[in-house]
Amino acid sequence: MKVLLSLLLAAVTCLDLGHSLQCYTCRDLTPVEKCLTIENCTGSDFICKTTMYSEEDVYPPTGISVVTKMCSSSCVPSDLDGIGMTHPVTCCYSDLCNFDGAASLRISVVPVGILASSLCAFFWTRL
């Protein structure tokens, strides 16, 4: 009976896996406030990645901050205490979390739910 309940719990948890992550995307240098294109990420892309560029990187200088944003399968965020950083990178993991380019700690509910139910099922069957 416990095994059946564990399998049922795992199946219910996996029902929402068809939903793909959505990120704001602009692959060319774009002003932060104009990068509003929404992209449905592929199955292997589970991170919204934003790279900020300083005004000096843009020619001719525009006086505004520009970014690239995209879906990604990997992302290494910049050290927030880094000195002299020219292209800070932020990574986030929930739908449209890369709106403003700032580092985000929001976590998608689906992976957390899957992890929690898997741990629950594991401990339930071990009892």
From TrEMBL:
> Can you give the residue ranges of the UPAR/Ly6 domain?
21-108
List the signal peptide residues.
1-20
Q: Which SMART domains does the record associate with it? A: LU
Q: What does the record list as GO biological process?
A: cell differentiation
Give the superkingdom in one word. Eukaryota
Q: Which SUPFAM superfamilies match?
A: Snake toxin-like
Q: What is this protein called?
A: Ly6/PLAUR domain-containing protein 2-like
Q: Which gene encodes it?
A: LOC111925238
